[in-house]
Specification:
Helix 3 (124-130) crosses helix 4. 32% of the residues lie in helices and 31% in strands. By secondary structure, it is α/β, with parallel strands linked by helices. It has one domain (2-171): 3-Layer(aba) Sandwich (Collagenase (Catalytic Domain)), CATH 3.40.390. Strands 1, 2, 3, 4, 5, 6 and 7 form a seven-stranded mixed β-sheet that branches. The protein binds zinc ion. Residues 148, 152, 158, 168 line the site of zinc ion (ZN).
């Protein structure tokens, strides 16, 4: 007999799920399909480009981007005046969904699938003025913000080193190589 249980947990709560219950065969699905939920076509182009660049720096297809929000599992929102909220220009959150197919005798192990996704919220003015800009400083600003918030979406916490992309403050020079080492580790690459 099989029963299916689907649950959605935000952020850190999901860790609790793995420490209780019966033995399981666990499979994780790390398939991030992003889409901006309130972008016009030129902003979509900008996001497609930054996701493409992210993947080329990662060395594999860590993220996907679609202009069709219905095909996405990881929404990106541009919020007007976000920087008025505690002075932050972005928020990144990881999400996971656990589906468990519990089988009883003669197979005592449940099959648990954990699917990971993320939710990003970025300051609208910050992104609008920079995402399609050809100025190097604007491109770097977008890279730092998007990579930082995506890092949270990949379960990364803040890093104490000011030169790390995951330092709480994204101003100043960052070492993107260190960051992508952590991205590759998350995906098991
Ligand atoms: Zn942060």
């Amino acid at each position: 007999m099989l029963s299916t249980r689907v649950s959605i947990r935000l952020a850190f709560v999901a860790f609790l799920l793995t420490s209780c219950g019966m033995p399981t065969n666990e499979k994780s699905v790390k398939n991030f399909v992003l889409s901006c939920m309130n972008c016009d076509s030129s902003l979509h182009d900008g996001f497609s480009r930054i996701v493409h660049q992210y993947n080329s720096e990662a060395g594999f297809e860590a993220l996907q981007y679609t202009t069709n929000s219905e095909d996405a599992n990881s929404p990106v929102y541009l919020t007007q005046g976000l920087n008025m909220r505690e002075g932050k220009v972005g928020w990144g959150q990881w999400l996971s969904e656990t589906e468990e197919r519990r089988s009883y005798l003669p197979q005592p192990k449940a099959l648990r699938t954990v699917s990971y996704s993320m939710r990003l919220e970025l300051d609208k003015d910050f992104m609008q003025t920079r995402i399609n800009s050809i100025r190097e400083s604007d491109k770097t600003d977008v890279r730092k913000l998007f990579y930082h918030e995506t890092g949270h979406g990949l379960q990364m916490a803040h890093h104490p080193d000011p030169g790390n992309v995951m330092y709480f403050d994204i101003s100043g020079d960052k070492d993107f190589n260190l960051y992508f080492n952590d991205v590759r580790a998350f995906f098991g690459k």
